[in-house]
Amino acid sequence: MTRKLTKEQISKLAKIELHCHLDGSLRKESILEEIELQKLDLKSVSPENIDDFVEASKNSTSLIDYLKAFDLALKVLQTEKSIERFTYEIFEDAFKENIVYMELRFAPILHTKSGLSLDEVIQAAIKGLDRAKKEFSIDGGLILCCMKNLTQEDAIATIETGKKYLDKGVCGVDLAGAEDEAFAYKFIEAMDLANKYGYNITIHAGEAGSAQNILDSVNLLHAKRIGHGVRLLESKDIFNEIKSSNIFFEICPTSNIQTKAVDSMKNHPLIKFFEEDLLFSINTDNRTVSATSLSREYEIVSKLIDMNIDDYKKMYYNTVGAIFASDKVKEKLLDIFEKSQI
Question: From CA 78, how far away is CA 341, in angstroms rounded?
Answer without folding.
Answer: 41
